[in-house]
Design a protein that fits this description.
Length: about 300
């Protein structure tokens, strides 16, 4: 049966850990100049309904490093669900390429692509989650701390797609997850229930507090993301009124564990959810985290294509 990579919740802790181990191996191979052409002759079709720097370039370079190739299909070209139905796009594109990655507005569209495509489909961000990001986040945390077991990971800000995938990967791998944000911007309740279940299975905890100071106490990882995600631009003004108490600044970071690392999926809105002082400061792991997208996605590609 074909394998897709749609959501962190679809994978067991063992499968996730094994993919992360593979990412670590592929990163070492890359750094020593020994990339193996695992994806020789394979082409990735990349459907984008939204802009991207990291996802687009890291997937493209991942394919090139491993001997394959990638095609960028812009929002104007395909018109997913508008110019042509999602089911038809899936069936046509799957006849040309070996694997598809899609960044969409509606999560249902990535599910529908996966349903109709005869080749693996990877979720490159939807309004529900951002699982490729979560793999790079976990890789970055593992590189710093060795394990997620018993670690306190705190997400400050909007309970969005990035927060949701982070909660799932952290709790699957035994870390405690805390979210702090304003009322009305919580992580989707059904996903929280899943996070609590994963935490119970791994011996971890999920916590919520409106108080960002309480949330970062004892945290080894502080994570934040934009207050306004792609597709929510009309709400930006309203959001800018309620999110300022949830800015990750130096004073807040000073209240966490002395060894804390600060993560952000990027793009950052400096002076809003994160200050320059933190983004460029001694606790920041923002750029290694962004670079880890490359390595994490090589592992995802290799697994869905069954070559490693
Ligand atoms: N973090 C992330 O997915 O960045 P892009 O939107 O630039 O791909
Ligand atoms: N939450 C952000 C992540 C961008 C990578 C968004 O969806 O726009």
């Amino acid at each position: 049966m074909k394998k897709d990579f749609i959501s962190i919740q679809d994978f067991t802790p063992q499968e996730l850990q094994s993919m992360l181990d593979l990412a670590i191996r592929l990163k070492k191979e890359h750094q020593s100049g020994g990339n193996v052409p695992l994806l020789k002759g394979k082409v990735l079709g990349m459907i984008f309904q939204k802009p991207s720097l990291r996802t687009r370039v890291s997937f493209d370079m991942a394919m090139r490093h491993l001997g394959g190739d990638a095609l960028y299909l812009s929002p104007n070209e395909i018109g997913l669900g508008q110019r042509e139905s999602v089911a038809d796009v899936a069936r046509v594109l799957a006849g040309y390429v070996e694997v598809i990655m899609a960044r969409v507005f509606a999560h249902e569209h990535v599910l529908e692509l996966a349903k109709w495509s005869s080749v693996p489909v990877i979720n490159g961000l939807s309004d529900y989650d951002h699982p490729c990001q979560a793999m790079a986040d976990a890789l970055t945390i593992l590189e710093k701390f060795g394990s997620l077991k018993g670690l306190n990971v705190t997400f400050i800000g909007d309970g969005n797609n990035v927060a949701l995938s982070l909660m799932h990967i952290v709790t699957k791998l035994g870390g405690n997850f805390t979210h702090s944000g304003p009322q009305g911007y919580d992580i989707k309740p059904a996903a929280v229930e899943l996070g609590k279940k994963f935490a119970a299975e791994s011996g971890a905890q999920v916590r919520f507090t409106r108080d960002p100071h309480a949330a970062v106490k004892g945290a080894q990882v502080i994570y934040t993301d934009t207050w306004t995600s792609m597709g929510q631009e009309a709400e930006a003004k309203e959001r800018e009124k309620v999110f300022p108490p949830y800015q990750v600044n130096a004073a807040l970071v000073a209240e966490a564990d002395p060894d804390v690392i600060v993560l952000h999926c990027l793009p950052a809105h400096r002076g809003h959810e994160i200050t320059d002082e933190v983004a460029d400061g001694p606790h920041s792991a923002l750029f290694p985290q962004a670079h880890n997208r490359l390595h994490a996605q090589k592992a995802i590609l290799a697994r869905v294509l069954g070559v490693a």
